[in-house]
Amino acid sequence: MLDGFKSIRKRFMFIGIISIFLFSAIYVFSSSYLTTDIVKDLISQDSSISLKSHANMIGNWLEERINEIEIYANHPTIKSRDVNDIHEFLITEQEKHHKKYLSLLFSDEEGNYQTNLYKEAGNILDREYFSQVMKGQSVLSNPIIAQSMGKEICVVAAPIKDVQGEIVGLFGGSIDLNAFYSFVERLQVDTKYESTYIVDKAGEIIAHTNPNYIMKENIRQSSEKVSQEMQERAEEILSIQEGSFVINSNEGRRMVAFQQIPNTEGWRIVTEISLKSLYQPILKTRLALGAIGLALVLVGTVLAIVFAQKQSGPIVELTEVFERATAGDLEARANIKYKDEIGKAGRSFNMMMDRMNELTYYDALTGLPNKQSFMDRLNKELYKHKREQKSLSVMIISLNKFKQINEAYGHNIGDYVLAKIAKRLRKNIGPQDMVSRLLGDEFIAFFSSGRDRRSIVAKTTEILDSLSKVIIKEGHHIYASVSIGIAFSSEDGQEAKNLIENASIAKSTAKYSEGNTYKIYHRDMRERLKERVNLSIMLHIALENKEYFIVYQPLVDVRKNQIIGAEALLRWNSPHKGVISPGAFIPLLEESGLIVGVGEWVLREVCRQNKLWQDEGLMPMVISVNVSPIQFEREDFVDRVKEVLKETKLKAKYLQLEITEGIAMQNTADQLKKLHELRNMGVKIAIDDFGTGYSSLSYFKEFPVSSLKIDQSFVQDILKEGNDKAIISAIISMGHNLGLLTTAEGVETEEQLEFIKEQGCDNVQGYLFSKPITSEDFEKLIKYGKAIKPAILPMKS
């Protein structure tokens, strides 16, 4: 018997069976005694987490109501204190928000109030919340009975201030306490064993699945609903923020958990769970664990026998594969299926050979074949296709703005993005095709499976769709766009070098056009690329040679029908190519970094011209200047603006800087500081092309912005079927609620203007009034007179 245990196989079998038997016995034994406490702890933890989540949810919902009421209190109609206008306003707004508010109310400083239901609803001078609000506080009242409706409510109220900052009234919204039923209902899992409700700081039940308990039961008082022991523990619930305990009630032992609700004066959410409900899952869990333990013994025994029966392979096999590897065969592998030391040696050898193969032929980060491996395979395929007179296509895929991803999220996430892109590319490549990492953020692939141009285009579209899906890492949502260039061997060269070069030119063309698209190579692309390079060279001397000039597009006040300012726009008159479109040269200025110098020249020139007009007696007006993201991100940007204003002696209030939504969102803390510094100087800030980015209202509450400029794409499509009308209306309403002016860009027709005016937009600009004109023509336009009408100004040519 002892001799038998010298066998590795028998030793493994014996040790495996004994280990699994002991493990299973301990597992079943411990689970029988620990399951109850574990399940109780889990349920307690789950209740605590769930309560905290719902408490925060209720608190956040109440905070939203306070913020909403504060915005209403600052609305022009409310501040007007016109009784009739306010009544109509209350009716309209309550219809919009009837799911949130039972009623909306307005009160003067003496407590006389009106609601959306009654113009003279009574007097609330004796209400506690009224005195708090008149001291300047926004409050959420304790539960009360509504005077006008007789319902159980709480009131969210905020002070109304006149222009001198004096409190002249109160605006509020009443919330039906029954509305909190939905919060309680979502938290409650099993009404048979659970009871969930909300109490105020005095212990009165103010929200319950049974409306008969609301403001009629108090946990400090014993009743049919409230047990004696619950009454004794009531002070504990009302005095600490969160906790749990077990009590005896008429229904048996119950676990009670509670959590304070944020943004309230001591409200708690309480849940009671019958301990009877715990024993059912405990019994089921014990039976399941016992069955699992038995299954583990049986399965483990079988696995141990199978594992032990694997015999070690002959040492000769290892010797042979070692000799093959020594001779340079990187495909040599040991076919070892044993689990002893020889098997370990074989697996280590295979791992070593796999690693050598990876280092030789594969990219370490993405796991794709490297450039050397790709070129070897491509040359073979090209030779084969040339001999068979078939076409082969090469595709280069380049990530757009990958450097920004690295800078924003770090190289670890950047590497993860590359690996994820590689994985998606691999899924889109057939078995006869090949994809490789070319360098950095570029990948290259060839398709040799007899695909024609149409099928390659279809495959490219699949790849674009696949790569554009969000990549999530460490809570970051990253959207990677790519540019793809394609070249065909039948048209663009039979040699690998030429084919890759042409695909690269097509890729660059795609990247320069719009990004996240593809281009198929043709000969004109090479010339266009040269032209773009030449244009970049010409830009370096354009400022020095005074080839830039500025035009001004008037800004018109819709209500007064007069010019109140203008937007300054950069133009380039090249001595070699004439006037060049801004869309052709401004992206090149940003790529080269020249936009910083040119942008400063534009700022200085516009300020100088505006001051000159004022000195000549023209009406003082605000001139807007567009700011590039590259320009704004410089640390000395604010200092540069100060220097220009000081140098030109222009008052800061006559300068408006237009920034995009993207600028404001890139680095909130840093950008917010710059914006506040500019606003403190008196400079106005406008958000340009609003509605096309990813703005957040939570950000705009903090940003010192003066106005929003609605992107012309929405204005131009007003008369078409779609959501543009709704979007424009929403932007104007949002802007006014935030105290911002709104400007519609690109107004070209009377119909567009009429719709914009109906929505209450403040200002417009567009070809209906005037195209961008020189400073001389703009000066003449102002001198003709302030009042204008559409179509009398220079029209679009």
From TrEMBL:
CDD domains listed in its UniProt record: EAL, GGDEF, HAMP, PDC1_DGC_like, PDC2_MCP_like
Chain segments annotated as transmembrane: 12-34, 287-308
Membrane topology: Multi-pass membrane protein
GO cellular component, one term: plasma membrane
Biological processes annotated in GO: signal transduction
Annotated HAMP domain residues: 309-361
UniProt keyword Membrane, yes or no: yes
Domain of life: Bacteria
Keyword terms of this UniProt record: Cell membrane, Membrane, Transmembrane, Transmembrane helix
EAL domain mapped to chain residues: 532-786
Record localization: Cell membrane
Any Pfam family matching the protein: HAMP
Broad class of the protein's primary localization: membrane
All copies of domain GGDEF, residue ranges: 390-523
Gene3D superfamilies, per the entry: 3.30.70.270, 6.10.340.10, EAL domain, PAS domain
Family matches, as NCBIfam families: GGDEF (TIGR00254)
Name assigned to this protein: EAL domain-containing protein
